[in-house]
């Protein structure tokens, strides 16, 4: 057994363990990650490291001339004539449309008929080496008829009659929706404090270290296709491949080697994967397609820029009465996760504060810029930025501390939002309190010298999802547990370990559920043929979902082992507990036997043990059986439980250069039971750095024609460890009794407060509020200059 | 992403190198670390038929300091070696600091100080302090050596005064004046792996009274096609008692001389502002340091 984490503060004394569902021995350990040593030593095998016998290389020819153009002609003859070239591929050879959301699927493996964004793939080549493949791409001649490039969602809507990006979207809008709860207009009439503001967010990308890579091997003898890919969603990839290749899913196997990060960017299929499979099927040899960084910038689906109008009203005591939210989102060229992200932004207004009346009018608009999609904290980051900044401003209007205002409005456990979203458990107030106390926020806020500031913001995120757009309501995660005398315990699940640590926490939860040690458990994930079904790594769902399924499967195995042990010990099976590799009576110490012995006896007499457990997410809409009415709401955006957090950032602004330095971050998070506290720390610190990037540094830029200006890590600036602030991350004591092991998410909730905490801190430092991210040094200087001019005013200091 | 095929030469002696450079002429590029050249080749901006790797030639490498005479730095000395050299840090502080701010650790251990100047990027780190410190370059060929100030060697964006058959072999730095100090600063979006939007070096020498500026050299990077040596700042400060008011004037004068452009990294206006900020800060820092000498 490893050492208990020093911060472990759950009191274990006072009652027998069988009466205490929080008496964990494996959950709560800061064990090193299963995948850690291989990665630290550089021995982990990523897709791009793979070489198969006879393997050749594929490359994609991209449109580098236009962001929007009809394809008149593609001539591949010169490429085919180049020695070493084995095949070429164009879009019309695989025209079936794929998409992560079935109802809005509108992408093809390669462009068919027209290109809709700069760098879209128009053809592909397979050749004996990458160099030849690249040379062959240069020899492919494409004739285009340029179309006007729409680079702004408002321009796109205004010119829809003249320029159309997708035939089936005559208004250039992917989807729009109204979510109206209560009577917002009436509620505003009674408000004492009303604030109206407009916000805008930038266009960051995930910045994962490993570019997409795919190796496909099609066996011409038996018609089986095996795809190795860098993906977060092996199941979706599997399904999309079946659609595009017109092959049954049972003939396709998807395997994930080590994956170097995803953050949502690998949450859809990628052109590399389709092209590798299509080329492999065409030539009967394994094909590898690996993206360069520029390919990632062109195609990876980053965060939606949002143009938001907000109105929030408080009553005279500071209680939120109404929120009015209007959001225009830049969808980029294709649908992707767009419908989901859009509705998430609408549902994010309902938590973590009590909002009795809310109106969200949202629309997601096509442009000829890179497709936007899922990115860590999907749909939450943009509205959270606005709401937390506005509450800061409203608190100032009221003359109270933002902390007081947020505490006043924060929800409690068992809260049902007006849209029917149900929060079984929350420690949000404890997060606010902890961060405020540990940072000294109340002593510092408003009192630091000019140039230094402190800012507070809270946030929450879904923990798992009720993904109502999935094609069926089968369980979203199934886990098979296998126990035998050879392999010990094996967890089989087609989930995706993308660096977030799911294999490690699954091993800890399986060990806990089966009463053995973490070190006894093997985890097999990332293979659609070996593992039981899983939807994928997104929506911060895996810890909750797999934990639930693991518990269910373990119950079956434990039942069998207890019966066997009861027989061996001569006591009642239902008096037996399994913990710490022992099976023992809860009441009489003399009845005790080693777990491994019982397993051996069971296997010898009955055979190897296995069981499957399932998880289906809860639903919050449906039919009222008495009245027959349909109950709406809490559709997208609902989840079995929610994680909460608070961040307090302390910044220094160099008022001469405009640089903002985040010096210290105090964070407190409610992630339920921390299965692995060390891993939680890593997720939280990573989250803060992640959105510090998009708040102060990162933005994709384009010229007037839609051509990328910074598709590389030279000019797309992620913060480095030189920018990393001191971090004090705190896991507040929390246990959700409705969740398996009491768990919640921590991978996406902790990105939510970062924009507004920094923005509020900048205001505290220099007295300027920003309503747009990223906040660049040039913006700071400009704002300071304007402030100075305004203050100088008529010279009398009246501010006029 | 792939470079053209090229022939690779790795001469061991200056003689071999001069022979190759003379014989291959325009067909060849000199490889001295490759942290810039290889990127240009991968992007197909240059596609030389031959590469002549001069990093195996002992005579072109290393840091030699002779008290009272100054320092000679071989062109193929790694930037990391300049960064960590105690004697460079002591005598030519601005240069050691600038060398340590180039790219990443990996880049500094591969890239050379000669390469940084020969790449002639306006945002290059080491040319700015080298010029401020009065560095001269030695350009050698089979026919002999030419010597010139570094600011004359770099003639424009990616343009240097290197004739066919020549190799930049050395930097010669004069012994620092007794009461002098040099400082370097840069501005960019972040503090590592950064391409500067402005960089600057100041080398200041004081009279015995510790107050009067005997001479000052202020050099700006990334605001002109090559390192820009301020004429106005010395004109304002030389012979004058150092004061905050004078610094303000000098900073304004430097801003007046800078000719920045707008690009992806910063706007012209921002660069202009930063020239003023860095000039103010560096002049004060260098002055304070010189008082301590």
Give a quick summary of the entry.
The complex is a heterodimer of chains A (about 800) and B (about 290). Chain A is built from 19 helices and 30 strands. By secondary structure, chain A is an alpha+beta fold.
What can you see in these coordinates?
The complex is a heterodimer of chains A (800) and B (293). Chain A is an alpha+beta fold. Chain A has 3 domains: 47-147 and 212-291, Aldehyde oxidase/xanthine dehydrogenase, a/b hammerhead (Aldehyde Oxidoreductase, domain 3); 306-467 and 636-790, Aldehyde oxidase/xanthine dehydrogenase, molybdopterin binding domain (Aldehyde Oxidoreductase, domain 4, 2-Layer Sandwich), CATH 3.30.365.10; 477-609, Aldehyde Oxidoreductase, domain 4, CATH 3.30.365. Chain A contains 19 helices and 30 strands. Chain B folds into 3 domains: 7-53, Uridine Diphospho-n-acetylenolpyruvylglucosamine Reductase, domain 2 (2-Layer Sandwich), CATH 3.30.43.10; 61-174, Uridine Diphospho-n-acetylenolpyruvylglucosamine Reductase, domain 3; 180-292, Enolase-like, domain 1 (2-Layer Sandwich), CATH 3.30.390.50. In chain B, the strands form 4 sheets. A 5-stranded antiparallel beta sheet of chain B has the order 4-5-10-6-7. A 4-stranded antiparallel beta sheet of chain B has the order 11-12-13-14. A 3-stranded parallel beta sheet of chain B has the order 1-3-2, covered by helices on one side. The radius of gyration of chain B is 19 Å and the shape is globular. Classes of the chains: A alpha+beta (800), B alpha+beta (293). Chains A and B meet through helix 3 and helix 19 of A and helix 12 of B.
